[in-house]
Amino acid sequence: MPIQLYGQTEFARMIGWKPSKFTAYWGKKNLRIPIPEPYAYVGNRPAWTMEQIEGFKKRLEAKSNDEAP
Amino acid sequence: MLAEWNYGDAYLRYPISDEYTFPDGSRIKVHNIFDPLPGFMKEADLIFSDPPWNLGNLNTFYTKAGRTDYQDSFEVFYKRLFECVREISPKTCYIEVGKEYLSEFIQEMKSIFKYVTFYNSSYYHKKENICYIIRGSSKRQRLPLDYMDEEDIIEWICANEDYTCIGDLCMGRGLVGWNAYKNGKKFVGTELNHKRLSVLIEKIMTDRS
Question: How far is it, in rounded angstroms, from Cα B8 to Cα A42?
Fold first, then answer.
């Protein structure tokens, strides 16, 4: 099964973030919901699978639901 | 057989029917990848291989080697290639591939190594000849290889990677072996076509004399 990989800009768009927010978040450590380790790198640019992106999005949504009043 | 498949007739001057050991201990062998891996290949702590990129390409190498036992599945071939990589268990591995099987090769590499990087590359120093070089390793490194020609990448790897012996499972005319030799490093390799291996033997032995 061919694998499709997505870069930072596409990752940000798929989770509804601006690329600048994603880049800032990507650089942080000890986050409660860390961005997954990239599946691969294209040159020096990280790349993720759709499954990884969707998993991260679900974790974000679950966190925001937990924190809702 | 076409003269161009005789590779300058090096095989007549430096024949190799099975194995050949160079003065520095580097070893090469005429070998079908589907046969058991020669033990000496496990000396490699770094691999660079440029295997055939699809079934048609694979079978042209059988033709050029004067063989008729053609393969009917490219998947069987590349699964065997990565099985050999697993068996050798190098610290770092580079595999060159075209676009058609890039995805499959990335997934195979990812099943062996924690970090996988692939570089946009080209061959014969022509930008329109697009290929990719996939690097698998246990340590992530930022390397300046993206958009370099594959020949320059091989040269860079042999000069700059941290290794004691480089292996090549599809040696061809031995570009990897030649670059390892130029850097005073050991190499090991296998190749289906004895005539292509003779080119490397001649090149190194001529350079030494």
Answer: 38
